[in-house]
Design a protein that fits this description.
binds fe (iii) ion; binds adenosine monophosphate; globular; binds zinc ion; 11 helices
C-alpha cells in the first residue's frame, strides 16, 4: 500500500486487508480489488474530507490522488455547504480507481438545545439539484461571505488584512470560512498558521468572531432525506469547538430521519466514542469513522479514522446516487 510522506502509516495500513463484509454487487468495480467470491471490495473507507471547494487545501482531483496514494479504497468528498467539487473529484476517482461517495457537510444550528448549537451534518449521495437543500446551502454560503466580510472589517481595525487578501486564498465558488481568513492572516505574517489563528483571534467569542446563517438541524436532516441523501451527524462529541448537543437533540434528529453518527473522529476521546456508540445503538443509527482531512490546513491525516464496509453498504442502499466505482 502506498503511503503519504508523513502520513500515519500505522493508522492507514491497520484497517486494510480485513475480511470483507458481504456486499452489494453495484459497489464492486469490475475486476478490481475483490477477491474470489467477494462481492464487496472492502479496503479503507474514509467518509469525510475537504477540498478547495471549501476549506481543504487540495483541489478535488488532488484530494482523490492523495487518497489513492494513501491506499484509500473509498473516499467521500464532503465540502462545507457545497457540491461544486463533485465533477472534478468524480473524474479523478475514475482515473485513480478510488471509490467516490459524493457528499457535503451541511452547516446547521440545533435550536432545541435552547441556546442554539452549531452542528455539522454530513449528507451522502443526495441529489445536488434538489431545490430545498440547494436553497438552504446557497443561503448559508451567501451569509458565510457576508460574515467573512464583517470579520475582515473588524480584523482590519487591528491587523493588516483586506477583503482582497482573503479572496486571494480562495477560488471561484469556494465556500468561504474562517480557515481562509486564517490563511490571509498567515500570508500577512500575523499568525504562523490556521492553528494559531483559531487559538487566538478567530476563536468563538473574540471581538472579531461573527456567526453565520444556517438551517435548523432537524429541518436540515429532513431536507437531506428529501433530496435522497443519507444524513450523518458529524463529530457530535467534539467539545473543542464549543458546546455539544445533548443526547435529547440526537434523539430528535433521529426522529427527523438521521441515519448515523460519526463516532470515530480525532476530536472524540475514547470515552466519548464509547458513549456515542451506545447512543447510536440505542437509536438504531449507523456508526461511521472518518478523518475530516483538510489537506495541509489541519493535522488530520487522511484515513486516520475509517468506516466499516457494511456501514458504507447501508449508506449506499439508502442514497439516491450510486457510489462511483
Ligand atoms: P467556519 O465554518 O467558517 O466557522 O470555520 C470552521 C472550520 O474551521 C471547521 O470546518 C474546521 O475544519 C476549521 N477549523 C477549526 N479549528 C481549526 C484549527 N484549529 N485549525 C485549522 N482549522 C480549523
Ligand atoms: Zn472545515
Ligand atoms: Fe465539521
Ligand atoms: Fe469537516
Amino acid at each position: 500500500m502506498g503511503l503519504l510522506p508523513g502520513a500515519g502509516g500505522a493508522d492507514i495500513g491497520g484497517a486494510a486487508g480485513r475480511p470483507t463484509a458481504t456486499g452489494v454487487p453495484h459497489l464492486t468495480p469490475p475486476g478490481a480489488r475483490a477477491g474470489p467470491g467477494d462481492l464487496y471490495p472492502g479496503g479503507v473507507i474514509d467518509l469525510h474530507t475537504h477540498s478547495t471547494a471549501s476549506d481543504g487545501t487540495d483541489s478535488p482531483a488532488r484530494l482523490v490522488e492523495v487518497a489513492a496514494l494513501a491506499g484509500i479504497a473509498t473516499l467521500a468528498i464532503t465540502d462545507h455547504d457545497t457540491t461544486s467539487g463533485w465533477p472534478e473529484a468524480a473524474e479523478a476517482a475514475g482515473r485513480y480507481q478510488v471509490g467516490l461517495v459524493r457528499g457535503a457537510e451541511i452547516s446547521a444550528i440545533a435550536r432545541t438545545t435552547g441556546w442554539g448549537t452549531g452542528v455539522h451534518l454530513l449528507a451522502y449521495l443526495h441529489d445536488p439539484m434538489h431545490p430545498d437543500l440547494l436553497a438552504e446551502t446557497e443561503r448559508t454560503r451567501d451569509d458565510r461571505e457576508s460574515r467573512a466580510r464583517r470579520m475582515v472589517d473588524l480584523l482590519a481595525e487591528d491587523y493588516p488584512i483586506t477583503w482582497e487578501d482573503l479572496l486571494a486564498q480562495t477560488k471561484a465558488g469556494t465556500t468561504i470560512g474562517r480557515p481562509h481568513i486564517a490563511d490571509a492572516l498567515a500570508a500577512a505574517g500575523v499568525v504562523r498558521d490556521r492553528e494559531e489563528a483559531f487559538a487566538t483571534m478567530l476563536r468563538v467569542g473574540t471581538r472579531y468572531y461573527v456567526g453565520h446563517y444556517a438551517p435548523e438541524a432537524a429541518a436540515a436532516v429532513r431536507a437531506v432525506r428529501a433530496a435522497g441523501g443519507v444524513p450523518v451527524l458529524a463529530h457530535p462529541g467534539a467539545d473543542g469547538r464549543g458546546r455539544v448537543v445533548p443526547d435529547s437533540t440526537v434523539e430528535e434528529l433521529a426522529a427527523a430521519g438521521l441515519a448515523g453518527l460519526e463516532v470515530e473522529h480525532r476530536d472524540h476521546t475514547p470515552d466519548t466514542r464509547r458513549r456515542l456508540r451506545d447512543l447510536a445503538e440505542s437509536l438504531d443509527l449507523l456508526v461511521t469513522g472518518s478523518s475530516d482531512f483538510h489537506g495541509a490546513g489541519k493535522q488530520n491525516l487522511i484515513g486516520e479514522n475509517t468506516t466499516e464496509p457494511d456501514v458504507l453498504e447501508a449508506i449506499a442502499e439508502q442514497g439516491a446516487l450510486a457510489v462511483l466505482r
